[in-house]
Structures are given as structure tokens and as C-alpha cells.
Amino acid sequence: ATQLRAELQAGSPAGLYLCYQPIHVVDDPHSLGIEVLLRWKHASFGFVSPPEVIEIAEEHGLGDVLGDWIFRQVIMDLSSLPSSILPRLSVAVNLSESMFSLALSDRVVQLFRQGPLRPQQLVLELTETIALHDFSVSQQILTSLREAGIRIALDDFGTGYSSLAYLKELPVDKLKLDKSFIQQIHLDTRQLQLVQHITELAHDLGLTVVAEGVESAAEREIVIAIGVDEIQGYHYSRPLELPQLRHYLQRCF
Ligand code: G
Ligand code: G
Ligand code: MN
Ligand code: NA
């Protein structure tokens, strides 16, 4: 942890880097989302899973430092993309518990001033667990993010204390249906009806719906028929390192 802190503060932690997974917008081939996914290849332990990296960081009070590193790294990585492509992207960053504070929106706006991205291109992914930890504080944080033009996605929807009831009380913009909802959806009618109802309800609340974990053409066709707005999954692409992302974007646009 001491080493991780020193390296994070120096700006170039060994073995830490970001991958990017495409998120396709069903009705708009001219824009693309990408989800930022943390990777840590440790010199002696090999790959450490992102939740473990986050946990180590949070346990040692490094959640903020890691969060800042992620935002800076995203800005640096994406700055190297062609300027014709950049405005078409929206970039989704996962929030850890300590990043989700009242200081977040000012911090992000400040960091984005240096970069080629506008806050309007940023989506912050929040799990239900973090969002529901303190409901009224969450409302304040989310309101300040929205005022800065930043959008919010509720991540892993369906795995936690899912209730659509609180959704209308939280200023969120998107719902990410967890991949456990999507897998085998083409073989299970009840599953399909459930996803259909959730999608309709989310749309009634003015939310955009993202289907995660779409792995096959069959699953893709079904979620499009259901009316989801955006699709993410191995069917399109695994999380990509920056050079592969560059190639993917060149093929896309
Ligand atoms: O990409 P992968 O399957 O390894 O991610 C596993 C889990 O780790 C997912 O739940 C994902 O949301 C989480 N995760 C990946 N990158 C980040 C990150 O940068 N920050 C946070 N807080 N979580 C992340
Ligand atoms: O929890 P969160 O949704 O933030 O993390 C997304 C995780 O899902 C990442 O770890 C990513 O690698 C993984 N993922 C993305 N697409 C697929 C997919 O099509 N199938 C499976 N099994 N996992 C996926
Ligand atoms: Mn996510
Ligand atoms: Na998720």
C-alpha cells in the first residue's frame, strides 16, 4: 500500500493502467460510449482484480488518490485519440465509495478543464450500495453533478436492493441492467418479460437503459427488440487497451 500510494502520487504507478469497453448506442452509429475499467498487473502477484485494487486503496485511505489518478489517466489516454473522434465519445467511470462525496463535481470539473473532454461527455457509474448508503447525501451529490452537466448511471442494477421506487427520488440518467439479467435471455421467457418491464418503467421515469453482458447476436437482437438504448458486452468487444481502442474506433467511425 505504501508503494501504491507513492506511485499514485508520483503519477505513474507500476502495472496500473486502464482498459476501455465500447458501449454501442442503438439508434446512433455516430456516437459511442466507453466504460473505463481499471487493471493492475503486479510484478509478483500477477493480475489483481479491480475490486481488490479498489478495496486495498480504500482500506488505506487511498481511494481519493486512486480516483484522481483514474480521471487524470483517462484524460491523458483519450487526449491521444484523433480530435475528430473525441466529441463523439461518452466516457463512463466507475465510482468507488470514497470518490462519491460532495467534493466530487468540483474536482471533476477542475480536472476536465485541462482535458479535451467536456463534463457533458462524462458518465459516472454508481452502484446501488453506494447510492443508498446515505440517501439524502446522495441526492445532494447527484444534484451537484447534474448541475455540472455530468450524467449518472446506476450500475449493476438488479443485483442489490433493487427497487424502482427510489429511482424517481434520485437524479440519475441511466440504468445499467446487470449481465445476470441478460445472459440466456433468449432462452427464458420470464427473464425476458422481467427485463421488458424494467425497461418500460425506466423509460417512463425518463431513464436511458443500458444492457450489459450482451455476448451473442441472439441476445443483442432480443435487447434491441425490448427497446434498450445502449448495449455493452463481448458480442461487440471485450475491454480494450488503449492501442486496441484506437483501432476499434477507427473501424467504427
Ligand atoms: O472489468 P472487470 O470485470 O474486471 O471489473 C470487475 C469489477 O470491478 C466491476 O464490477 C467493475 O465495476 C469494477 N471496476 C473496474 N474498474 C473499476 C474502477 O476503475 N473503479 C471502480 N470503483 N470499480 C471498477
Ligand atoms: O460491474 P461493472 O458493470 O462495472 O463491470 C462490468 C464488468 O463486466 C467488467 O468487468 C467487464 O469486464 C465485464 N463484462 C463486460 N462485458 C461482458 C460480457 O459480455 N460478459 C461477461 N461475462 N462479462 C462482461
Ligand atoms: Mn460499471
Ligand atoms: Na455492472
Automatic annotation (TrEMBL):
It comes from the Bacteria. Transmembrane segments: none annotated. Residues 1-253 form the EAL domain. This is Diguanylate cyclase (GGDEF)-like protein. It comes from Tolumonas osonensis. The chain holds residues 373 to 625 of 631 of the full protein.
